[in-house]
Design a protein that fits this description.
Strand order of the largest sheet: 3-4-5-6-8-11
Helix content: 25-40%
Distance between the termini: 99 Å
Bound molecules: beta-D-glucopyranose
């Protein structure tokens, strides 16, 4: 018996020892491979300021002399050339990969920026500084608190990109970009990892909220405006995810099988507009493959198309841990591997040794990285103060959010008149969602709910409805705990929805003037959405909407539905029930105030849909080739993927829509398909209501120097001042190729037009933009003949048409 006991203790002791050992080993391995492996490469900050021949400079390499690269009177090209000539091969290879993920999870060296997800590593000997990279498209994502400091580092949660695109307002988006850039500058961030400009190929891509539109022109012009705004501050951007990254399922291995024509006309086109109009400092290659090659290893995409054809001058970085073969990536023109791992570092050294990675390619990537470093404020030794103007940015976010919200329906109810007591229904009215999850999330200080927004504007929030919510919340409190820290990245906030009894509703309706039911959705990086309970309303939501509208209408009271969502949902089956529907999207941290501004009429809605709201998901051709059972990435899964990178399955075992996805719809994405095939939709592309009406008059079309010039007068014929988005489509008559019946080729937004006043708007369409991609010639081709030039208020509401012969 005693012996058995001893044996038991010995075995248990051994097991505990082994567990501790393997735990310790795993931690050591993860740390040394992915987090911190940069020992001996600390940033040098103690170089002295010298004056030679009347010129004062930082003696970065402490050699007591003025080197050309230390002289900021010289061009960046000359400085980079000089520093490159002084770098050893080891130093050059060192700078090709980032310094690991430690700061991305909040662990930093002194002087670092916790939460910055990546760096360009310093070159100690030459005094080249660390460059900080931080997400993302809706605002910065750095750690809001730091150990031992009382000061906080919250960032502004701006509206999601889909909302920004719904404003169709380039000047406003530039202003949002400018505010983001200023915030980055204040927090010491050199490059913002955004905007994200992938096409909404299918409504259920989990990251659609980070992307702009189903249309490449809208996507491109919105993206260019935000890049220009951010970069006007001397802060860089990383335009992502280049390219055809339209699903999250199996994103590290998915192979997109797509025609050259669809690539050129749809998936590359938006990026092309952005590159040509704004020269982002960096582009982030995507995780996926295109036709068998990882985008980060594709010479044809990263060098032939991006650089040689479009003239991109910046650097390309990988998406985080993306791609397989570091040497192939650098050789293809993917200059920087982020966030960098020890494995990649070793692989690059080895590839250089055995001649797999040429010195030319190492020099090319290094000089592109150094060019970025020399552009940053870090090289001007500016001291950031970590005090952005959060108040001003909150104001910008509030205004931009209301500019992009889309009024889908309004039957004599909005803007409010004679309303005092408002019944707020549905959990989301009280728990507004600022944005999506994943790297596109922001660590903001607060989010204004609809309840707070309406209270701020002086309305009474109905007590009965509020009490019903409070009781429900307490009863389902677990589901109301917002995921925090790193868990929040992959865990959408989904509180349990409410149900109302007939008695409760009776009390609510009889004590209020109007009802607002908010429906919410929260999704994001790492998973695609589902049709059931996400695109389609859940049973609880359906029940709520039927019961609530019935109860309000019975008492002759109105009910409004507010959609606090990040992507398209089904609307056809219920849209006839409420009196008004406001698509509020996810409006950032001031969302509740922005919605209130619209409900009260302080802002006349002027947003229009940047994508179609279809009747059925299956109306999209892409639905035939889109994951139906998406697996959501978990934090544990992601760590496992890092340690044991997933391998491709043998050809025979590959699963459709996971390991590969056929883009069989070709160029027929979104309205390009619906309009060509005359398929009924719930709300068409480009649709949105206003509190006023606009008349389109006197369209004129002329051609000069390869450009179509169009003018049209927009008259406000209603009672409220308002802005109108004016859309210009072209249609090739008697086309000999299979092309969309019409395509957006230009748009503009009027200024605020007073009732009875008018504005003449002008747009230009370069004739070459009417070309299609001819796969036989491998080039753009213009079909000769007649084109309709149409101006409309949506893709299904053309107001004037002129014919043009080209
Ligand atoms: C995302 C990128 C992001 C990066 C850094 C990746 O998982 O795909 O969009 O910029 O992480 O957070």
């Amino acid at each position: 018996m005693k012996k058995k006991k001893i044996l038991f203790f010995k075995i248990t002791g051994l097991l505990i020892f082994l567990i501790l050992l393997s735990g310790g080993f795993s931690f050591w391995y993860v740390n040394k491979t992915f987090l911190t492996f940069e020992n001996g490469y600390d940033e040098q900050t103690n170089f002295s300021e010298l004056t030679k021949e009347g010129y004062t400079f930082f003696d970065r390499n402490n050699n007591g002399k003025l080197d050309q690269y230390e002289d900021d009177r010289e061009s960046i090209k000359a400085r980079v050339h000089d520093v490159l000539s002084q770098m050893t091969l080891e130093e050059k290879i060192h700078i090709l990969k980032g310094g690991g993920m430690a700061s991305g999870i909040g662990i930093t060296k002194p002087g670092g920026i916790p939460g910055a997800v990546g760096t360009i590593v310093p070159t100690t000997r030459l005094g080249i500084p660390t460059i900080y990279l931080s997400d993302g498209p809706a605002g910065l994502r750095i750690e809001p608190t730091r150990e031992g400091e009382d000061k906080t580092f919250y960032c502004t949660a701006f509206p999601i990109s889909t909302l920004l695109a719904s404003s169709w307002n380039k000047a406003m988006i530039y202003e949002v970009g400018d505010a983001m850039g200023k915030e980055a500058e204040a927090y010491g961030i050199d490059v913002i990892l955004g905007p994200a400009a992938n096409i909404h190929r299918h409504p259920l891509c989990g990251r659609n909220f980070e992307y702009f539109s189903e249309d490449p022109l809208l996507s491109g012009l919105m993206g260019a405006a935000i890049v220009n705004g951010i970069q006007s501050n001397g802060v860089g951007t990383s335009l992502k995810h280049f390219v055809a990254n339209n699903q999250e399922t199996n994103r590290l291995l998915n192979d997109v099988i797509v025609s050259d024509r669809a690539m050129r006309e749809i998936y590359l086109k938006g990026f092309e507009h952005i590159v040509k109009r704004s020269q982002p400092w960096t582009i982030m290659s995507s995780y996926n493959k295109v036709n068998g090659t990882y985008t980060s290893e594709s010479n044809s995409l990263l060098t032939d198309v991006l650089r040689d054809e479009w003239g991109f001058e910046g650097l390309v970085m990988t998406d985080w841990f993306g791609g397989k073969n570091p040497a192939a990536q650098i050789s293809a023109g993917n200059d920087l591997l982020e966030p960098g791992t020890n494995r990649q570092w070793k692989a690059l050294i080895k590839a250089a040794e055995i001649g797999e990675l040429s010195l030319n390619n190492i020099n090319r990537a290094t000089s592109r990285i150094l060019t970025l470093v020399f552009k940053t404020k870090k090289m001007q030794n500016y001291n950031y103060n970590s005090n952005p103007d959060l108040k001003k940015n909150a104001e910008i976010t509030r205004n931009s959010a209301s500019e992009g919200m889309v009024l889908l329906k309004n039957e004599d109810v909005l803007p409010f008149s004679d309303i005092n007591n408002i019944a707020l229904l549905g959990v989301t009215s009280y728990e507004f969602i600022a944005g999506g999850t994943g790297s596109g999330d922001v660590n903001e200080a607060y989010t204004i709910s609809l309840e707070e927004g309406l209270s701020n504007a002086g309305f009474d929030i109905n007590n009965m409805a509020q009490q019903a919510f409070d009781t429900h919340r307490i009863a389902t409190i677990e589901s109301f705990k917002r995921p925090e820290g790193i868990q929040a990245i992959f865990t959408p906030f989904k509180p349990t929805e409410m149900t109302y009894t007939t008695e409760q509703l009776h009390d609510i309706v009889t004590t209020s003037d109007i009802g607002i039911l908010t429906l919410g959705r929260n999704a994001g990086e790492g998973g695609d959405r589902l049709e059931k309970d996400d695109f389609l309303l859940t049973e609880a939501e359906q029940e709520m909407i039927y019961k609530i509208t019935e109860a309000f209408h019975k008492e002759n009271k109105k009910i409004i539905v507010v959609l606090n969502i990040g992507g398209v949902i089904e609307t056809t089956s219920w849209k006839n029930l409420p009196d008004a529907i406001l698509l509020a999207w996810q409006g950032g941290q001031e969302g509740g105030n922005s919605v209130t501004d619209i409900l009260t009429g302080k802002v006349n809605p002027s947003g229009k849909l940047p994508m179609t709201f279809p009747i059925n998901l299956s109306d999209h051709i892409s639905n035939d080739n889109f994951p139906k059972n998406p697996k959501i990435i978990t934090l544990e899964g992601m760590v496992k993927n890092l340690i044991f990178p997933p391998n491709e399955l043998p050809e025979a075992q590959k699963v459709r829509d996971e390991d590969y996805t056929h883009y069989d719809e070709g160029v027929f994405v979104g309205y390009r398909h619906f309009d060509t095939k005359n398929i009924d939709v719930s709300y068409p592309f480009g649709y949105g209501l206003s509190y006023t009406d606009f008349e389109y008059q006197a369209m004129e079309v002329s051609v000069k120097n390869d450009t179509i010039n169009i003018a049209v007068t927009i008259k406000n014929t209603g009672k409220f001042s308002g802005k109108e988005i004016v859309e210009f489509y072209t249609e090739k008559l008697n086309s000999e190729i299979n092309r969309p019946s019409q395509e957006l080729k230009a748009f503009t937004k009027t200024k605020l037009i007073e009732p009875d006043a008018m504005e003449r708007v002008f747009v230009k369409i370069p004739i070459k933009e009417l070309s299609y991609w001819d796969e036989k010639k491998n080039d753009w081709a213009l079909e000769k003949g007649s084109y309709n030039i149409k101006v409309g208020a949506s893709s299904r509401d053309m107001r004037q048409i002129e014919q043009l012969k080209l």
